[in-house]
Amino acid sequence: MRRSLFQNILWTLPAEVAHNIRMTLLGVVGKIPTGKWWIKVCHAPRKENLEREVFGIHFRNPIGIGAGFDPNGDRLEELAATGFGFVEIGSVVPRPQPGTPRPRIKRLRSSDSLIDNSGYPSRGLEYILNNVRHRTDHTRDLIIGCNIGRLTASHREDTVKEYLRVFRNMYQYVDFFVINISCNTASKKFVPRSHEEILQLIEPLFEFRRGQLDYRPILLKISPDLSWEEINTVVDVLIETPLDGIEAVAGSIDMARKSPGAVTGALLTERAIEVVRYIATKTEHNYPIIGSGGMMEPEDIKRMMDAGASLVALNTGVRENGLRLLKRAAKRIAQREDNK
Ligand SMILES: Cc1cc2nc3c(=O)[nH]c(=O)nc-3n(C[C@H](O)[C@H](O)[C@H](O)COP(=O)(O)O)c2cc1C
After folding, report:
1. Mean pLDDT, 10 residues at a time, over the chain (340 residues)?
2. Which atom of ligand 1 lies nearest, measured to the CA of 114?
3. Which CATH code of 3.40.50.10260, 1.10.1270.20, 3.40.50.2000, 3.20.20.70 fits the domain covering 5-339?
4. How far apart are the C-alpha atoms of 104 and 107, rounded to whole Å?
5. Does any ligand 1 atom lie closer than 6 A to the CB of residue 113?
6. Burial environment of residue 27 by CB neighbours within 10 A (0 to 12, 13 to 18, 19 or more)
7. pTM exceeds 0.85, yes or no
């Protein structure tokens, strides 16, 4: 996809600086009168027939923003104006954590990819709660997913309690949850992979949900580095428990080889599509999957949906190719729907 002039300028800057400039500008434009209207005019997809119902939630289109793009929910009003089908905030952790010292996101220019070693920097639960607690006219209809992750410094035995704490506090303010069981490189200590470990983490969440009036879907987000046997375990958990779906995949630590961090972007495309296709086939397309990983072009998004994803969550594609990816992808998906 051809980059705009603005995107080409951002591309000359370090990846994290470029992202921060985009988010700051988005915030500035959003604050001026008619700013959100302009954002909408420039970026929102035309009224294509892209609405759908997934895990009981109505989405205006299937193209969302993935975790790590607006981790603290600071730009929800502006992202709502861009027209994304949903925004996944987080990873939300119970206390603020600075993440890894900068520079921590490396751009692999020749392969249109990043190595993310940010270590899930977060302003923590209290701050994020403040951002989602009061929906405004601009965010009232925005579907918000809450991705829950692990504090880098927390002890293994505290992890379950900490996930539950974030889940309980965020429950009434967001629309669905993504439980991140892929690890970030700074917290390799506890990556639940076995049946028991995954159940240990999610059962307390199901129990809390059972006592609530409103139902919030819960999905598991998995690493692309899992073996097929480990993916089978996740599928078994999906089938045996009240889990609502899977998000596949996060960044790949294995692909980063000797560099600390996880590969995201184009190098991940084929693996991400392969994992989504495998899970969709194994579950006979009976469970929702959010496709994530390496969707840099509208065609990648179309292929991800062909593989069985009901929704897609973008990150590196928008960082590196700009917000125009949304409008173009929506057009491609609308064509796909017409050809069905
Ligand atoms: C800078 C950066 C930060 C990220 N932070 C998170 C995070 O906090 N939690 C999470 O689950 N995934 C995080 N991700 C992973 C993305 O949500 C996504 O799953 C992954 O990057 C693959 O998609 P992509 O190739 O489109 O970026 C992050 C990715 C990047 C590039």
Report:
1. 92 97 98 96 89 97 98 98 97 96 96 96 98 93 96 88 97 98 63 90 98 98 95 98 98 92 97 98 98 98 98 98 96 91
2. 31
3. 3.20.20.70
4. 10
5. no
6. middle
7. yes
